[in-house]
Amino acid sequence: MRTLRTIPELRALLSEARADGSDIGLVPTMGYLHDGHTSLVRRAAAECDQVVTTIFVNPLQFAPGEDLDAYPRDPAGDAEKASAAGTTVLFCPEPDEMYPTGADDVLTVVTVGLLGQAMEGESRPTHFAGVCTVVAKLFNIVGPCRAYFGEKDYQQLASIRRMAADLSFPVEVVGCPTLREPDGLAMSSRNAYLSERERSVAPVLHEALIRGARLILGGETDASAVRAEMARAVRSAPLGELDYVAVADPDTLQPVERCDPGSRLFGAIRFGRARLIDNIAAGEATDAG
Ligand code: PAF
User: Fold this and answer.
1) Which CATH number belongs to the domain containing residue 148 in this structure?
2) Is residue 183 domain-resident?
3) Mean pLDDT, range 33-56, rounded to an integer
4) Atom of ligand 1 nearest to the CA of 30
5) Which of the listed residues 142, 153, 160 should we mutate to test ligand 1's pocket, taking the one with most ligand atoms within 8 A of CB?
6) Among residues 19, 167, 180, 268, which is most buried (max CB within 10 A)?
7) In the predicted model, is pLDDT for residue 289 greater than 50?
8) What is the pLDDT of residues 162-221, one digit of tens each?
9) Are 17 and 139 members of one domain?
10) pTM, rounded to two decimals
């Protein structure tokens, strides 16, 4: 595995690889890699000749007061995990490599309209512009590739997919299933913030989504009844503070009034300084036990 820190080095290496006939897989991350990330790398390695994993804690997607400085970091552990999963090129730029004028002075940003305003966008209004801008930069730096993103951040995946289509990036966006701990908690770097007690009740979010999905599969079509059931389930657990639960169209991410098994269920909950998100397709509840 080669580790690179500058854009020209990465471009040069990838143009040589392409000249040799290699195709490229891209796995953008903010590091502190867990099995969810390495499952994306393994999938990319199974489908592409070269796998570029990027590690960059992107300041543009954190609002003032969010956890940019506290965001967990483990560069040595990340390099080991990325390599073991099949990364051939690890790209770890410094902030001034990605934002030469400073992250506070970026004038060109990519927004995705209503997709970025629903759900997560309500409490984090600048988040998806930050995500889409850095991902657009990575797409431009890496060039034609398949890019792998987890469904755990479903709104992010939908936004990036739409951005790639709207702006004609030569990138195939590949969505990959959420990896979960044995008790159902979705894997996330932010799980590291949970105390032991919080960790023990954190699966309540996934359980609430499953309860909502089961209602839908049982024939409930009134989304407000499903939301109420999910909110009740989350509130029944101690320590957590409900941020939102939503029943939405899987493509537009807009809330629906009438739901069906094609609807997608979303939620966010705070435990102290950890804010956890999760989502499932209503149809998934049959597999979720
Ligand atoms: O999902 C993440 O880790 C980040 O939002 C991403 C896609 C790497 C952009 O910074």
Assistant:
1) 3.40.50.620
2) no
3) 98
4) 3
5) 153
6) 268
7) no
8) 999 999 999 999 999 999 999 999 999 999 999 999 999 999 999 999 999 999 999 999
9) yes
10) 0.96
Distance, in Å, from the CA atom of 206 to the CA atom of 210, rounded to the nearest integer, reads 6
Per the CB < 8 A criterion, the answer to whether 161 and 173 are in contact is: yes
Residue numbers of the domain that contains 40: 2-176
Q: Judge if 36 and 112 occupy the same domain.
A: yes
Measured over all CA atoms, what is the biggest interatomic distance in the chain, rounded to whole angstroms? 58
Of 123, 135, 126, 140, which is closest to residue 160 (Cα–Cα)? 135
Please list, in sequence order, all residues whose beta carbon lies within 8 angstroms of the beta carbon of residue 214, skipping any fewer than 6 positions away.
Answer: 285
Same domain, 78 and 156: yes
Please give all residues whose beta carbon lies within 6 A of any atom in ligand 1, as ranges: 28-30, 58, 61, 131, 134-135, 153, 156
Domain count, the chain: 2
Question: Cα–Cα–Cα angle for 262, 266, 268, nearest 5°?
Answer: 175
181 in any annotated domain: no
- Which tens digits make up the pLDDT trace of 108-120? 999 999 999 999 9
